[in-house]
Design goal:
By secondary structure, the chain is of the alpha/beta class. It is built from eleven helices and nine strands. It has a domain of 212 residues: Vaccinia Virus protein VP39 (Rossmann fold, 3-Layer(aba) Sandwich), CATH 3.40.50. The strands form two sheets. Strands 5-4-3-6-7-9-8 form a seven-stranded mixed β-sheet, sandwiched between helices. It has a two-stranded antiparallel sheet with strand order 1-2.
Length: 335
């Protein structure tokens, strides 16, 4: 397969141990991630003083891809992000982080919610079981939504925790139907962001909760920064619809929420925490790799996934892209 070079410099890739039997696989991957010479890591050098930015070389998808979420990617991401074996998640933090994000809503057995970022659904299924909740999930990626619904049915939770594809053009959340809405790292992929926030407000009952996390620009000009542009390119390639992403700034998100006169309780930059979740997941993943499983298809899948998260991490570390968490409440009619 042809390879595509996307930066300046490349330490040896994982899975290529036959090139240098003295550099273990885990050292190779760590060097690639950190953009350093693997020999420097072998010598115990400070990565910050080692060679600069890594060249990232990744095999392109097959000529006839199965879609953004083929079974091999679902399996790899579950292994990457599941903190517990039964988490069934494909995003950083495992089911425990989902529960942490939901905590300010205070949902109980008398309340219901919508999750507009259900992913594989494991986080909300666990919550529904533990708190006797009714949670309806939506997911932008159709392949992922279908697999999430299959798992809900497999667990006998197709009514308590159904998961549907999210089509923003056709989405109808109704009026005053739920006590809480979760929107986790999805707003930046929505074309009409303000309309979605307005629809969420309309769907909330009085004193209902919105918890939102998202990737936001440090300023309008940050979208043109090379490291942000590099991540945006890969984010667009990963999306099922291949649409162009238009990110909001932190100020834009605040304005969008307050336009509905919601009571904004939490509005915090949690970039460092999110980076910790990402880096912790990759550390666990790499720590569990064995030489025997380094087949070419597995390595290709792993490197394509790692490429996206490496670009995102570098964009966040640059300060030009930030990770935001917000919690807002609809009032009696909110002031």
């Amino acid at each position: 397969m042809a390879r595509t070079a996307v930066a300046e410099r490349q330490p040896a890739m994982p899975g290529a141990d036959e090139r240098d039997p003295y550099i273990p696989l885990k050292i190779r991957f760590k060097a690639w991630w950190e953009g350093v010479d693997p020999l420097e890591l072998m010598r115990g050098a400070d990565p910050a003083r080692a060679a600069a930015a890594a060249k990232i070389t990744v095999d392109p998808p097959a000529d006839e891809p199965l879609g953004p979420w083929p079974p091999s990617r679902v399996a790899l991401c579950r292994r990457l992000w599941d903190v517990d074996e039964d988490d069934e998640v494909v995003e950083p933090g495992g089911a425990a982080y989902t529960a942490e994000l939901y905590k300010p809503m205070g949902l109980d057995s008398t309340k219901s919610g919508f999750d507009l970022s259900a992913g594989l659904g494991g986080g909300i299924r666990k919550l529904a079981k533990e708190r006797d909740l009714w949670l309806t999930g939506y997911e932008l990626e159709p392949d992922l939504a279908a697999e999430a619904m299959r798992l809900s049915t497999q667990h006998g939770m197709e009514r308590r925790c159904p998961i549907k594809p999210l089509d923003e053009e056709a989405l109808d959340l109704g009026e005053r139907r739920c006590d809480g809405v979760m929107l986790r790292e999805r707003l930046h992929r929505i074309r009409n962001k303000q309309k979605l926030l307005d629809d969420i407000f309309t769907a909330l009952k009085p004193y209902g909760h919105l918890v939102l996390t998202d990737l936001v620009l440090e300023s309008e000009s940050a979208a043109d920064h090379p490291v942000v542009a590099g991540w945006l390119k890969r984010a667009e390639e990963r999306a099922a619809d291949g649409s162009t992403l238009h990110l909001w700034t932190k100020a834009d998100v605040k304005k969008g929420i307050l336009s509905n006169r919601m009571d904004l309780r939490i509005f915090e930059d949690e970039t460092e925490k999110y980076l910790g979740l990402v880096q912790g997941g990759w550390a666990r993943f790499v720590g569990g790799l064995t030489k025997a499983e380094m087949t070419r298809p597995f390595v290709d899948d792993m490197m394509r996934e790692a490429e996206y998260w490496l670009y995102l991490s570098k964009a966040l570390e640059s300060g030009k892209l930030r990770y935001l968490r917000a919690h807002a409440i609809r009032g009696g009619e909110t002031l």
